[in-house]
Write a structure and sequence with these properties.
- The protein has a domain of 131 residues: Orthogonal Bundle (Tetracycline Repressor, domain 2), CATH 1.10.357.10.
- α2 crosses α6 and α6 crosses α8.
- By secondary structure, it is mainly α.
Length: 254
């Protein structure tokens, strides 16, 4: 339970889940920031034992992220992760029921960080833009850039669908999907894309970006692959944009 006068952790998580779906890019960054600030501030007033417990869990997640990134899920062992976090196996299994459970927690943090970084890039590069189309382009290219990070490639792109299954993988990937959905809806609202159901369109674009990021991750020359995929995504999005009507030229009277 939360302290008197503050929302409990469960309530905060419910609010975050509902807010992610309807938030703008700037609000999305604020939501992630609030989450971190909330945990930091409440930690100051918690008993020392509880603070140590949270630090242990944090150390385990950091150690697991590094190990999964370097060795992959199959080759990583719980013993190695515990040793890297300087704890015994007991605390590790106290916080996480299995290696898959630990992987899911790490993957969710990777997805949250990915979405927050994309939202920051959108806000930084489109601060003076009111055109939602520019936001769609920037968010798509930012997704590919962020996907160059080793942890994103190994954990989110290559292993999460297999380790967790598509249903669990899709649930955790909702953070990035929320950004794509919001950008497309803004473009539709500004009549830059023909009116249409946004949900299937967002899923299709998310799938295209994920496949493009996978292509980059598996390429020998990732810089060249990044340029090729970036161009392909831009051309794909260009097909969605509503064509501007051309004014008819007046006929010349002979």
């Amino acid at each position: 339970m939360g302290r008197p006068g503050t929302p409990g952790t469960a309530s905060l998580r419910r609010w975050l889940r509902s807010s992610v779906r309807r938030s703008s890019f700037g609000q999305f960054r604020l939501i992630i920031y609030i989450q971190h600030v909330y945990y930091s501030l409440t930690a100051m007033s918690r008993p020392a034992k509880q603070q140590r417990s949270e630090r242990t869990r944090r150390d385990l997640l950091d150690a697991a992220k590094e190990t999964f990134t370097r060795r992959g899920f199959a080759e990583a062992s719980m013993e190695e992760i515990a040793a890297r976090a300087s704890v015994t196996r007991g605390p590790l299994y106290h916080y996480f029921d299995s290696k898959q459970d630990l992987f899911a927690a790490v993957y969710e943090e990777v997805e949250q960080a990915l979405a927050a970084e994309i939202a920051a890039e959108i806000q930084n590069r489109t601060a003076a833009e009111t055109d939602a189309w520019q936001q769609v382009l920037v968010s798509s290219q930012a997704f590919l850039d962020v996907s160059l990070h080793p942890a994103v490639q190994r954990i989110a792109l290559l292993e999460a669908p297999t380790v967790l299954g598509w249903e669990a993988h899709g649930h955790i990937a909702r953070y990035g999907l929320a950004l794509i959905r919001r950008g497309l809806q803004n473009a539709i609202d500004q009549r830059l894309i023909d009116p249409q159901p946004v949900e299937p369109l967002a899923h299709i674009l998310r799938a295209a970006l994920s496949e493009g990021a996978l292509f980059i991750a598996r390429a020998d020359d990732q810089a060249a692959a990044r340029a090729e995929v970036g161009g392909a995504i831009e051309r794909l999005l260009g097909g969605l944009r509503r064509k501007r009507s051309r004014a008819k030229s007046p006929r010349t009277v002979a």
